């Protein structure tokens, strides 16, 4: 191993010692439950998923959570490590990672009241707001059983070949439930005083240390900001960290926020590295390595954090899902080739929380490494891709990566499609990274790009200077739907694209028609002056992150910035708006719209639009008709597919693939678009 500093990110590529092992760099792939942990028949898929990331150069992989005892399962039949049969299965994971030169730690988790199972147990009586099942409050005997199971789990982890273990002590899982009065209402020696609430974790650490040699690394995932009202104070967190070090923890991987917290901690609108200051504070308390996490998604951000010298490593789970080659690319100065995680959660956490297998919106291969392969083609073909939105870009790049000769046609002056619109929404600036990524990938994979070129079917049938096309991929996307409303052609009416792209002046009073994903986005856009650069201070005020370290959980009253416009968000369906938004992001959008004072109107009929504004009536006889006196109406009523090329090409006998919004406009989403683009590329032989 070279000892010279890496010329690009010298701190990130310094080795790091944790207990008895040395990591090759300071990039840690944080724990992320993929769903592949839960069934033995998925073991090879999980091994391939980890192996690909180990090959990508990461210093340490931490697995998704595995329970050390059945009462701690995340859901029925979830991943566990409790016996020698499990050891056999886990050995296959560790061998796959070691073969690629990587290191892997297992996360031992007890879900407590967060378990999606009727057999769950927890510290106190407070029910879980995120799962339906009731739990049993633990008896003294149960408590000692769980403590011993963590020790047993550590022993079995070592036997399975793991390089380290991580004890999950954050995010509101069982250990965290004992630590906080929010969930620990016990009156025995495991509740009440700080010492009593910390006893459970202290005993676990002691037990684990008894079961594994001193040089076997034990990492603690410690919650250092609970963001729940009766969470820990800073003094308690600092004391717990000191005790962890004293009783034999070798590193602290800092964790932010419970799943039930009212402050977002991972979505794209959270400023990058927003919580690193909490990790840095811990530096004054302990001397063991500290790992920072949450919204660290580029090597630049990682390097900047490490350079300040108060944090020893950075944890990046989703960024490694999005790009398994992240670390190698950074190491070799190819940071601009990284497919940067945009914090959308659409294919990772939104899947995890509804029991679906995790993947990545940007990287359809994530979690499907063994089934979606992009090997070199044996016969290079000449391929046309029409449309440079997410579907077309994914198709063009993946097809070219396989060795085909690709020409990409785009009618507008730049690539990106719906992503370029999304990037202008406040808090969605990360989407620019995807456009940057594809721009670079088109370059390095020698895709011929024709911008401002509305290619015709005749031209495609005829071919270009490069010859006739063997196959054509139609990714012409969508056009905003124009609903049939009397007066929809009034000058005050505009499409969401025109509104967001700044093509039209927008007045101070606006009605938004359609409360789907885009309706919410546009509403947020309209309540601020212009798409702001992410400002941590304002963001903390808006969401109520307290500066006062004596405040339990660091939660305070939110102080949102006032809306810059009066906005009405209207839909035809009765009931609550935003039901179709993502599981882990929808609540943030709903809360944002609420905090900006937007009036949300459901069950409306659009009677007409005229100089007076938008005329609404309602099926509900108790709701009187009304006129929304607005300067503008922005239409966010879904989309329709653009498929003009499909029929002529098919009739001419051209092998034609239709993907993304052109294939299906309903429920259009970038996740499906990119997956279809990748799959079509994999299928062209
Ligand atoms: P959408 O979510 O399907 O919403 C379209 C809205 O338009 C519906 O709420 C519907 O509500 C209304 N509508 C449909 N036909 C209409 C008509 N003829 N007249 C008036 N209103 C009509 O579609 P979208 O907002 O365009 O978003 C597209 C996709 O992008 C979504 O599926 C989502 O996956 C993705 N996206 C998600 C987010 C996010 O999660 N934050 C953000 C942006 C985009 P009513 O029928 O009740 O009026
Ligand atoms: Fe990141 Fe979105 Fe991919 Fe999840 S789905 S890893 S948040 S880009």
TrEMBL record:
SUPFAM superfamilies: FAD/NAD(P)-binding domain, FMN-linked oxidoreductases, Nucleotide-binding domain
Family: In the N-terminal section; belongs to the NADH:flavin oxidoreductase/NADH oxidase family.
Domain named FAD/NAD(P)-binding: residues: 382-656
Keyword vocabulary terms for this entry: Flavoprotein, FMN, Iron, Iron-sulfur, Metal-binding, Oxidoreductase
Molecular functions (GO terms): FMN binding; iron-sulfur cluster binding; metal ion binding; oxidoreductase activity
Record protein name field: 2,4-dienoyl-CoA reductase
Domain NADH:flavin oxidoreductase/NADH oxidase N-terminal: residue ranges: 12-336
PANTHER family to which the protein is assigned, alphabetical: 2,4-DIENOYL-COA REDUCTASE, 2,4-DIENOYL-COA REDUCTASE [(2E)-ENOYL-COA-PRODUCING]
Coiled coil stretches, renumbered: none
Native species: Gordonia effusa NBRC 100432
